[in-house]
Design brief:
By secondary structure, the protein is of the alpha/beta class. The chain is built from seven helices and seven strands, in the order αααβαβαβαββαββ. The protein has a single domain, classed as Vaccinia Virus protein VP39 (Rossmann fold, 3-Layer(aba) Sandwich), CATH 3.40.50. A seven-stranded mixed sheet has the order 3-2-1-4-5-7-6.
């Protein structure tokens, strides 16, 4: 995976990349993503947040990739979202930066990642954001659960799906959004008990990486 030799600066990678993807992003959101990216690079050596260390690749593989959520979900929806396995905040924290109308919960088992996510949220002054430091299996076994309009996951292994009773936490008419590398076959996108509502297959700018995003609803 290599980038072209002649690249614009990171701000232009983000802004031009969003334009290429057809996603409307404000200048203030670009500025906040740049701050987030620098915090990620600083804290990565301490918390092991991402294996990608090059700033340009982070901008494409994490930030632009996260924003492909908006190819199947509208901006300014005021939705209540849960990001399962939020990691270093992709996609949940990135989409919150771009769409301030969202309220979002970030779920991750790693306490160091949760510390980092809280630090970024505080630095950027983000509101209507919460953090859940649990294994997702333990979270779904809890007796008291919030209801969400959207449940997201980016890198959850298929074998983990058996632990998820997502219907338990979805509002009526709610959606599940899954992100995939490449263009997955039907077996990988099978989601028992749900039907596909909308999907997007495309290429991330600069790296020409294939990505897919699929939105489901309960049958």
């Amino acid at each position: 995976m290599s980038l072209p030799k002649c690249l614009p600066n990171i701000s232009d990678i983000l802004s031009d990349g969003c334009e290429s993807l057809g996603i409307d992003v404000s200048d203030s959101s670009i500025s906040n993503m740049l701050t987030y990216l620098e915090l990620l690079r600083y804290w990565n050596s301490k918390f092991n947040l991402t294996s990608i260390v090059d700033a340009n690749k982070i901008a494409v593989c994490h930030f632009l990739d996260s924003l492909t959520i908006f190819k199947v979900w509208r901006l300014n929806s005021k939705a209540h979202c849960l990001d399962i396995g939020a990691g270093a905040g992709f996609p949940g924290l990135v989409i919150k930066i771009v769409d301030e109308s969202l309220s979002i919960a970030l779920l991750d088992k790693n306490p160091k990642r949760i510390v980092f996510l809280k630090l970024v949220a505080k630095e950027l002054g983000l509101q209507r954001i919460s953090f859940i430091n649990l294994q997702f299996q333990d979270y779904f076994q809890s007796h008291v659960l919030n209801k969400f309009d959207v449940v997201l996951f980016r890198a959850l292994p298929k074998k983990a799906m058996k632990f998820l009773n997502i219907g338990k936490i979805l509002n009526s008419g709610g959606s599940v959004i899954r992100m995939y590398s490449g263009q997955p076959d039907a077996d990988k996108t099978e989601f028992i008990g749900y039907h596909r509502v909308e999907s997007w297959n495309g290429v991330l700018p600069y790296l020409n990486l294939n990505r897919s995003v699929i939105r489901y609803q309960i049958d």
